[in-house]
Amino acid sequence: MSPQSADRVIIFDTTLRDGEQSPGASMNLEEKCRIAALLEQMGVDVIEAGFPIASRGDFEAVNQVAKQSDRSIIAGLARATKADIDRAAEALAPAPRKRIHTFISTSPLHMKFKLQMEPEAVLQAVKDSVAYARAKVDDVEWSAEDGSRTEPDFLCRCVEAAIAAGATTINIPDTVGYAVPDEYAALIAMLIERVPNADKAVFSVHCHNDLGLAVANSLAAVNAGARQVECTINGLGERAGNAAMEEIVMALRTRADRMPYDTGIDTTLITRASKLVSTITGFTVQPNKAIVGKNAFAHESGIHQDGMLKNAQTYEIMTPESVGLTKSTLVMGKHSGRAAFRDKVRELGYTLDDDKLNDAFKRFKDLADLKKEVFDEDVAALIDDEILRARDRIKVVDLSVMAGSRKPQTAELTLEIDGERKTHKAEGDGPVDATFKAIKALVPTTARLQLYQVHAVTQGTDAQAEVTVRLEEDGKTVNGQGSDTDTLVASAKAYVTALNKLLVKREKTAPAAMNA
Q1: Are the CB atoms for 54 and 510 separated by under 8 Å?
Q2: What pLDDT digit, counting tens, does each position of 334-368 carry?
Q3: b/e for 291-307, b at 16 or more Cβ within 10 A?
Q4: Which end of the chain is more exposed for a tag (fewer CB within 10 A), N or C?
Q5: Alpha carbons 67 and 98: distance in angstroms, whole number
C-alpha cells in the first residue's frame, strides 16, 4: 500500500467509531469484537476501533480489537492533545499493525467558534500533535476536520506541515456533507498538485451523507487521486451517516471500466456484514437500500421479470452471489440432527463454541416445533438473538399476556436482573403497552419510547417477528432488536435489549471540543 498506488484503494472502516455515533447505535465490547473479526475476514485494510479517551468502554474496545487482530491495521482516534494521543497509543499497544488517527478543525467557522484558536495556533497544533503521535507509532493519519470548507491556502499549509511532521496518511473529511462531487474532486487534486511533499502520504477521504452525496463524493475523490476511502457498513454514522462501504466497494468492482481500482475486499461477505451490523445496532436496513436492501435484487415489474428470465444481465448489473446473497432455502425440520445444524451454521458464516452451538441447537429445535418451514433467515435470526443476549444484565425469562377486545389487557413478566429473577403483572392499553409497563416496573427508567417497529423474518403466518425498539434518555438514544415466533415476546426482548444497551451508553461521554 504505497502512497498514491496507481490501482489500490485502501478501505478504512469506521463502523466501530463513527458508525457508533449514529443516534441509538451503541455497541458493547463483545459486539465490537465480533464486527471487527468479520471486517478483518473481509479484507478491510484499516479498522478504526474507537476513540480511546472517550470512555473506559471505548478504550477497552480498541484494546481488545488490537489484541485479536493480526492482519488489519487497527486505528484509534485522538484529538490534537498529548493526553488523547497517549491514551490511543496505550489502547493500540497490542496490535501488530497500529495507527494513531489525530485530527483538528481547519475551517474558519470551526477555528473561530469551536476551537477558539487563531490559524497559526492551529497550524502549530498540527505540527506538534503529528510529531508526538509519530514518536509513539510509525503509522500516523492526520485529518483536517471540516476540510471541505477550509480555505485552500491554509489547508495546503496544514497538509504540508502534517506530512513533514510524520503523517503517512492525510484525510480531508467532508465533515458536514456539504461538498458536491466535482468540487470535492478538485479539492483533492489541488492538494496533490500543490503540496510539495504530497507524494510522501496517502490521501484519504471521509464523506458524510447529509446531501446524499457521500458515495459520489468519495468515488470522485478516488478518480482525482485519493487512495483511501473511509466508510461504514450500511452507511452508519452521525446525522445522515457516512459513505456506505458496500456501495463504494461494489461501485469500484462493477464500474472498473471507469474506475480501474482494486480494494481487496471479499465481497461475498458483504451481506453477512450488513446483517450483523443491523442486528447489533438495531438499525434495520431500508428495503430499497443499494446492494444490501431486501429489494436490491427483487424484480416485480412484468417487463423486468421477462428480461431476467431471458438474461439476468438485462436488469442486474451485479449478481446476488457476488455480495453473498443466496436464495432463502428450506434448511431442516424438527428431526434434523446436531451435525446437520452445525454445518448450516458454518455455511451461514457463524463460528460458535460447543456451548453456544448447543444453546442455538436447542432453540432451533424449539423453533422447528413451532414452524412448519425453517429457513436460513430463521436460523440466522435465532443465532443473532442468542449471541446478542449472552452477556446482558437483564434477560427475559417468561411472559404471559391476556389480550383481546375485552379490557384490561395484562402482561405478567419475569425478568432476570443481574442473576436475580423478578416478576410483575401490569395492565395497559393493549398487550404491548402492558408488557412495556411491566418491564418499566421491574427496571425503573426515565427512558422514552421513540420507535416501535415490527417486521417478519420470513414469509408465512408462522414467521418469526423481528421487533426494533428505540429508547431515549437524557439525550442518549439506543436501539434494541428481538426476534421470536411470538410478536409480544419479541417486543419484550427488543425493549430489554435496548435497556441493556442504555446501561452501556450511560458510561460513555463525548469528549468536549478541544479549546485553546
Answers
A1: yes
A2: 777 888 888 888 877 777 888 888 888 888 888 88
A3: bbeeebbebeeeeeeeb
A4: C
A5: 11
3-class secondary structure per residue, 288-304: CCCCCCCCCCCCCCHHH
Tens of pLDDT, residues 69-80: 999 999 999 999
Alpha carbons 234 and 231: distance in angstroms, whole number: 9
Bridge partner residues of 104 (DSSP) = 144
Strand 140-145 versus strand 98-105 pairing type = parallel
DSSP per-residue string spanning 321-367:
GGGT-----EEE-TT--HHHHHHHHHHTT----HHHHHHHHHHHHHH
- At residue 131, the 3 state secondary structure works out as helix
Cα 362 to Cα 172, 200, 342, 350, 399: the distances in Å are: 50, 56, 12, 16, 19
Whole-model pTM: value is 0.83
Q: Name the more confident of 300 and 170.
A: 170
For residue 191, the surrounding DSSP H or E stretch is helix 181-194
Number of H helices and E strands in the chain, helices first, is 16, 16
The residues facing 173 across adjacent strands are: 206
Phi and psi, residue 178, nearest 5°: -95, -25
476-484/409-417 β-pairing? unpaired
Which among 403, 402, 360 is positioned nearest to 382, based on CA atoms?
Answer: 360
